[in-house]
Amino acid sequence: MGSLISTQEEEMRRDKEHFKRVLATPPDLKVNRSLQMFTGLSCSDSLKVHLARRREEVGSSAPDFIKTVVDKVAGLSFCPEVAGLAGLGSLALAVLVDNISNTPTDQSIKDALQKVLAEQKASDVWDLVDETLRRCVVNVQNRTQLASDVQRLEEKLSLALTRLRNSMLRDGQISNQALKVWVNGAAFHVQMLIHQVRLGGARTCEHVDRLICVYKSDLEELFRKLKEMIRSKCNVNTISVDADSSVDYFVDEQSREYCMGRYTLYHEYLQMYYEHQYSWQEGEIQHYFSGVQRDLQQLVAQKGHLSLM
């Protein structure tokens, strides 16, 4: 009897390991890497490396490339310490550098951002992000105007994110793409408020801290809703092999089928599936927002620097 149980347990273990190995690549719902890099505490270093890489890629056209960058940012040839160059300013200049160097689409920061923020039902989120990045370049040396621009646009983005969240929670329109847009839009919105404080458009960052808490709570709700959607769409497909036997297949929300073992129950497969595809991503996103919250004072005090000579 003990030997039989041991054999069944070993088969279950192998089945579970095989299931995890053959699962499709999870949809990426996390905060975009470029958004993290160019708005973090090392944003100036990231921008410096990015500029050097693009300058090397254009080869003999480097002098013209640098001149065009300088012209685009109102004659900025050397800027030792400017608040507008930190955070979103760094991200905006990285996008500008890509545009000027004609970076291929698959390597472009703007295209990468557009992919994670482009959703037909939430197109205003990307439009507002795009316009914010434009304003950050145009008024990089005009703190007052840039702070005003950021305030105007962040209010609109806040409303767009609220509508998107409500459509997922209240109207049942949750999807991987919609959730990805919300996650990245919320991360960008937080950086807008940080930039506003950095530029002198707000006296303290207490409201930023409160917003991050709200977004972390929203994130829990949204992933609970996502889990409900996944549960409702996954099922078991039983196929008869002959009169006396059949094979069960776990069917995911995309209608992909995975062969189930004899001793592992459906709810165990469902749990493994959700954890492998989605649960860990929620943890990483929460970790990102907690990190921003922890570093808030340093981020607000940050000033960017960039040498184009």
Poorly predicted sequence stretches spanning 5 or more consecutive residues: none
The rounded distance between the terminal residues' Cα atoms is 78 Å
**What's the helix-strand series?**
HHHHEHHHHHHEEEHHE
The geometry reads as elongated
Number of domains: 1
Largest sheet: 3 strands, antiparallel
Explain this structure to me?
The protein is mainly alpha-helical and 309 residues long. The chain is 67% helix and 9% strand. It is built from twelve helices and five strands. The chain has helices at 2-22, 33-39, 43-58, 62-72, 88-100, 109-117, 123-138, 143-169, 176-198, 206-233, 266-294, 296-301; strands at residues 78-82, 235-242, 245-251, 257-259, 304-307. It has a three-stranded antiparallel β-sheet with strand order 2-3-4. It has a two-stranded antiparallel sheet with strand order 1-5. A hairpin with a 5-residue loop joins strand 3 and strand 4 (257-259). The longest helix is centred in the last third of the chain and has 29 residues, at 266-294. It is elongated and about 80 Å long.
